[in-house]
Amino acid sequence: MDKLLISGGKPLSGTIDISGAKNAALPVLASTLLTSETVLIRNVPQLNDIATTITLLQSMGVEIVFDEQLNISADAKEVNERRAPYDLVKTMRASILVLGPLLARFGEADVSLPGGCAIGARPVNLHVRGFRAMGAEVSIENGYIRARSSKLKGAHIVFDTVTVTGTENLMMAATLAEGTTVLENSAREPEVCDLAKCLVSMGAKIKGAGTSTIHIEGVSSLSGTDHTVLPDRIETGTYLVAAALTRGNVRLNHTEPGHLEAVIVKLKEAGADVSLGDNWIEISMHGRRPIAVDIKTTPYPGFPTDMQAQFCAMNTVAKGVGTVTETIFENRFQHALEYQRMGADIRFEGNTAVCRGVESLHGAPVMATDLRASAGLLLAGLAAEGETLVDRIYHVDRGYERIEEKFRKLGADIQRIVG
Ligand code: UD1
User: Fold this and answer.
1) Residue of 145, 164, 195, 372 to mutate, ligand 1, most atoms within 8 A of C-beta
2) Pocket perturbation via mutation, ligand 1, pick of 89, 111, 122 by most ligand atoms within 8 A of CB
3) In angstroms, what is the C-alpha Rg of the chain?
4) Positive or negative CA dihedral for 238, 239, 242, 244?
């Protein structure tokens, strides 16, 4: 298993480009199952989760071709397998996103239940309930979600909880359903809007994506399209916090500042100077130590749970006391236990981590437990004195494109130890 070795304590400085968003590319790839025509997808990040999705689509019969710029053409004319097997789903929960498209276009889908996950139970009951409301017969058999429907019907669905992939799955299914579907209490994440944009360019009739009520009028078929995936706001946020906690200054190009408002407000509170352009963000700490901030995760446009571990890392070395409250997922503080091993002063009160900043962390061998926790550990390692060895780096490779190359470009001393 690969590891990353970081020799910390240096302020980051320089310019890098942000990649396409993993969480937008995954549903867009799944949406290619909705049409028999070719879909060209640009700005797809090269990540393990993307490779897993491609393997999944190929196993169903979708033809995938890469061009020289690594844009992806997906052709789902022949789809002879309507099953997502456990081996693939267990490594990536987002595989559930093929359920809606398969069911809508072919009337059948068998998708393995995702099973346990390091960051809490993460059920898929709201996806299932939505498909049932659209007239599908859904049962759980031998660990698989088995869904059947001769023709999905439009329905009025109110989500109990805001769910990102749940909204995306049902929105995709509704594009080919008979009649109109209304999704209430929908997720408003930019990735939902990006998927809606792609679907509309395929001929879908969708209104209200980006608000909590989405209307979808079903059509009989969708066509091919050419779609460019939006920039990754979580990758952007991760590099911004990396600059803040190392007291550095960094410019990020090819990003979308408008998607990071909640994160930027908190960075400013931490004492960062932040300048924004059309598609770039610059952050400078002018050598200053960050000030601890209080954050509470909520669905978009609130503070993203996927940035919680990184801000927690910043608070460990910040001036003062900061609280981080997680409201989306239970059991999402494993990173904080590892920060404690690096000398952080953190105590837990229910779903809140209360952190009193220390002058500096000390390097240690640490273990990544999930994707964003591993990003937090890298940041802690960059801020720490001495060497930090981050194990189980496959979690990072699921979601951050060429991370050590990008950090090195910003002056970090980081190397991969291939194991
Ligand atoms: C997506 C993101 C993930 C992010 C999360 C929250 C992708 C591929 N992943 O995950 O990076 O951390 O949104 O912003 O886009 N829930 C239920 N029943 C369901 C579905 C969800 O109770 O059927 C609950 C979950 O347990 C959780 C909350 O709803 O407490 C939000 O989860 P959800 O938005 O569905 O997360 P994902 O879409 O899996």
Assistant:
1) 164
2) 122
3) 21
4) negative
Concerning whether 117 is annotated as a catalytic residue, the answer is yes
How far is 364 from 366, CA to CA, in rounded Å? 6
Which tens digits make up the pLDDT trace of 16-65?
Answer: 999 999 999 999 999 999 999 999 999 999 999 999 999 999 999 999 99
- Residue 349 burial class via C-beta count within 10 angstroms: exposed 0-12, middle 13-18, buried 19 and up: exposed
Q: How far apart are CA 413 and CA 8, in angstroms?
A: 7
> C-alpha angle with apex 116: 19 to 262, nearest 5 degrees?
40
Residues 6+ apart with CB under 8 A from 293: 266, 269, 270, 311, 314, 315, 318, 322
Rounded CA-CA distance 266/294 in Å is 8
pLDDT in tens, 163-194: 999 999 999 999 999 999 999 999 999 999 99
Q: Give me 108's structure tokens.
A: 């059948």
How far from 196 is each of 66, 133, 203, 220, CA to CA, in Å? 23, 21, 11, 17
The predicted model scores a pTM of 0.97
